[in-house]
């Protein structure tokens, strides 16, 4: 997957467990028209699909819609880009859901490209963010879940099914808690926002008067010096550091870019992350690995989905498994 995008206009969809966002995106990366709906994550699959259709219907009201060449989808995973299906861990109503086919029907047969949300974020950061100019990078989304993607040899590497770099389901605790994916001790089970908050609550952290029990509230308490809140973030940072170091050892990345809502904690996350990384990334070829916050923020999913959809030099089909 190349990120030297040509001029044009595409439809981008960013599908997660909390929201379904859509945009018409220009070849320069500008989000020209936006639409969004909450994800009815606990409803049946058709209800979730209706929310996707509503987003597309709103975008289609724009006079720019007719000029859109193609559609890119970045979805919570796992995805199967070859089959065009999605099975997001946090959307139980979608298991093997034929998303590419269903979206294709709505958008008048325009070509539809599907990648995992971690790969989408990686494409965005390589195109316009902190990984720009790097030949080898790992990009992570740390939010409700933990996803990721790889840049290898200057190109985003989605893998055969679009899931390469899905670091959230790498096990970093062999005797750890069961994960929703069916594994045990996964990074996501330790470092995602809900699990940071869960661990803090289990260890005696008390939310403020507003009753907010989110990871952001835990981060605020950590900034104020609450030791339980600090410890919960340190544990998350340790899990992330172990997985980043393992990835760097395996494929020799130069930079790890961390985005998503949990990354908004700033130094509460990044300071212990860098400290922990120094204890895991000890070999000479990984010791100088750089860790930095993502730059594309909340636009990452849409920019990455757009990057997947734009016309590219040869081998796009091989890189993405376009349905």
TrEMBL record:
Organism superkingdom = Bacteria
User: Entry's InterPro entries?
Assistant: ATPase_NBD, ROK, ROK_cs
What's a Pfam family this protein contains?
Answer: ROK
- Database matches in Gene3D superfamilies: 3.30.420.40
- Name the PROSITE patterns for this protein: ROK
Indicate the family of this protein. Belongs to the ROK (NagC/XylR) family.
Can you say what this protein is called? ROK family protein
The protein's organism comes out as Streptomyces lateritius
């Amino acid at each position: 997957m190349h990120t030297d995008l040509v001029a044009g206009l595409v439809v981008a969809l960013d599908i997660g467990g909390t929201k379904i966002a859509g945009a018409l995106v220009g070849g320069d990366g500008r989000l020209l028209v936006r639409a969004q709906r909450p994800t009815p994550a606990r409803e049946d699959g058709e209800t979730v699909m209706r929310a996707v259709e509503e987003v597309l219907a709103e975008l289609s009201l724009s006079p720019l819609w007719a000029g859109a060449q193609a559609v890119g989808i970045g979805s919570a995973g796992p995805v199967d880009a070859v089959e065009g299906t999605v099975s997001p861990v946090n959307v139980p109503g979608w298991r093997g859901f034929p998303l590419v086919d269903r979206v294709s029907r709505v958008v008048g047969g325009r070509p539809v490209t599907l990648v995992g949300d971690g790969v989408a974020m990686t494409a965005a950061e390589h195109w316009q963010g902190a990984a720009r100019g790097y030949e080898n990078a790992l990009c992570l989304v740390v939010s409700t879940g933990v996803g990721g993607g790889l840049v290898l040899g200057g190109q985003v590497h989605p893998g055969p099914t679009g899931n390469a770099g899905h670091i959230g389901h790498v096990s970093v605790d062999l005797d750890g808690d069961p994960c929703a994916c069916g594994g045990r001790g996964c990074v996501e089970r330790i470092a995602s926002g809900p699990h940071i908050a869960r661990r803090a609550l289990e260890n005696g952290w008390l939310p403020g008067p507003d009753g907010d029990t989110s990871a952001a509230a835990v981060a605020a308490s950590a900034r104020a010096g609450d030791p339980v809140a600090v410890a919960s973030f340190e544990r998350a940072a340790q899990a992330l550091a172990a997985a980043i170091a393992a990835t760097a050892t395996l494929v020799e990345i130069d930079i790890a870019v961390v985005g998503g809502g949990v990354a908004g904690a700033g130094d509460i996350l990044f300071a212990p992350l860098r400290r922990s990384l120094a204890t895991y990334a000890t070999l000479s070829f990984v010791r100088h690995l750089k860790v930095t916050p993502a730059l594309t923020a909340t636009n990452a999913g849409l920019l990455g989905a757009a990057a997947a959809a734009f016309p590219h030099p040869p081998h796009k089909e091989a890189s993405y498994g376009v349905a």
